[in-house]
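Subject: Predicted fold for DUF4364 domain-containing protein, 187 residues

User T.R. writes:
Posting the sequence so we have a shared reference for the thread.
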Amino acid sequence: MSDEFNEIHTLAQNKLILLLFLSKINIPIPIQQLDEFVLSTKYMNFFEYQQYLKELEAQKLIHKYDDEIRTYIEISQTGRDVLNILLDLLPKATVEEVEEYIKKNYRKIKLNTEIYSDYKILSPTEYIVICSLREGNSILFEIKVNVPHVEIAKRICKNWSKNAETVYRLLFENLARNHEEPEKDQE
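User M.O. replies:
I've generated the structure tokens; pasting them so everyone works from the same file.
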């Protein structure tokens, strides 16, 4: 086989690996989660990976979209169709390795997708903390808090990752509860 054929075969396999991962995850994920998969599995180098993403997006095999906080990525229906047709090009061992990675890391990936917090520096004495809770493509809850110190911003981010579901549930229950006050007699 020629070097050119091997190069094309490797290119196709690497794109299929990315499609396989996104297909098996089956939820939109932050691009950082895909980055982590690629860097930890070493199927391809980071520069090739970036090129593959551009090509997959141009071919409409994946969708990328941004919210205010992060960039998300998911496989398109066309990407699923292509994967189903070409899956046999991937060695069985590679498919099993991708599946094993997902099995080991699914809970972490899902949590990182659903619960997010970060802060932005507005000035040396002003930070904005953004905390969100997602379900699929929907933002269930998002709050922005302005704080005066980076330490407070970091603490809020850390606490959000531990308590997001509880805070959301309590706030939702409290806001959804009927708090009508008895009407006062009008004179």
